Structure formats: structure tokens, C-alpha cells
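Quick illustration, no need to memorize.
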Amino acid sequence: MIATLSGALAVRDAGRIVVETGGVGYEVLIPLSTYYRLPPLGERVALEIRQVVREDALMLYGFSSATEKRAFDLLMSVQHVGPKLALAILSVLAPEELVAAIGKGDVDRIDAVPGVGPKVAERVVRELRDKVADLKMAAPSTSASNGNLRPTPDGNGRPAGPADEAVSAL
């Protein structure tokens, strides 16, 4: 099982990167919060990885912090929430915002995420209400342990400039 991945950033697209290490390029799907913290192409990057094995694919999902990875795992434990939907939620809500929304029972905040309907949002709140204590006690979302990801101006993985704002809007 792959737990972390570090190497040179070869491709940097919204939602997808390629990390080259040892002559192999690993495609990693990422939330937008991680995308905004990435260094420029060619520089070294280190990510927390969740490897998901499906019948027809082996997928790698990358995160800038262990807290994001834990949030992804918690979201994946909810019925009808798969990796794509979990990434979409983490692209809109930082782990701290997700914990706050679940704690307050703010179904509308989660329902506002593209692809999440009211029933799934209710299910997320209901099924994770007792499980988010782990995320509350975790350190705030910061860059990976070796600091190879860039923090953004507000520290929450929000767009840092016009190009990032355009990507976020798309």
C-alpha cells in the first residue's frame, strides 16, 4: 500500500498531478485545496496518499496533510460517497469547515458542494457526527511534513491569484 509519495512535480492540473520519482510518473488525483499549495513544475513535492483499489483500476489520491487524508477516509466511510465525491467535498470545504458543518448539522453547507444532493448531505452529517472528533483534535491543515507544499494567503487552500481563481471557478 502506498502511504506517501515524493518526487518532482511533472504535471500540475486542477484535480490531477503527476509526481515523477525513480523514473516513474505517478498520477495522483487531488482536491483543489492541495492543488493551491503545490510548488511550481519541476520542484519537489511530498503528499500523503490514499491508494484505492477497484475492480478495474488502482487510483492514488493525494493530500497536503494527514488531516485532509483522514477527512477523505471519513467521507469515504459514508454510504454513497465515493472517492470523486469525497474529493469534491474537500475541494470546497477544508477539514475544519467540514467538522464545523457536521457539528452544527449544517446540511445546506455540505449540499452546496457540486455533486452532493440533500440526501447525501444529510447522510454525511448523520453518519459522521460522532466520528469527527478525530479531525477536531488533529492539527490544522498545513503543508506536508517536509514543507514542500506552499501555503496560500489565507492558509485554507484558497486561490492565491487570478489563475487559481479561474481554475477554482471552473
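The mean pLDDT is 84.
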